[in-house]
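Table S2 (text version). Query chain:
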Amino acid sequence: MVATFPSVSMRVVSAPYFKRRGLVPLLIGLCIGWIFVCIWGAVAAFLLANNPGWAFVLFASTFGFAGFLCWMSYQVFCDAFKTYTFELTDAEAVLQIFDRLRKTKRTQMVLLDDIKFAEYYPYCDDSSVIFHAPYTDMEVPLWPMGLHAQDILDFLKGRGVQVINVQSDEKFPE
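Corresponding structure-token output:
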């Protein structure tokens, strides 16, 4: 008689976008940036009559900064439509990314036995773990998972995956 043990697994789905860490400070920063674009655009317009050279430089830098803010605002908008589902079993780690804006679904998978080590970036607003295997490096964003990030790390350590915190003095394996 062979004893079989039930497969242990964990499935974590990202929190709704408005509950994600760091969103409010990011939106406040973007709003302040857009306010400064408006202020410096007005200053450049008033300066145009007195010093066209400096007005041009101020317009150029303001539009450059506005372009950066457009890109950041677009990225925040796109992130709002992404849902991450991360599933861990005794044998594999599977990340599914659902993009409701573009109506796409991406799936990445790595076998736990193939993982040499995992890099853990513990930053509150942008935490992630990167799995290093011979055939892929898979990055899993932990920041949208909320409080379940620690559960994921504990699960990995319990399965024998070496998790290296990049803020510690641990050396990366060769």
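Notes on Table S2: The two ends are 42 Å apart (CA to CA). The first helix runs from residue 23 to 47.
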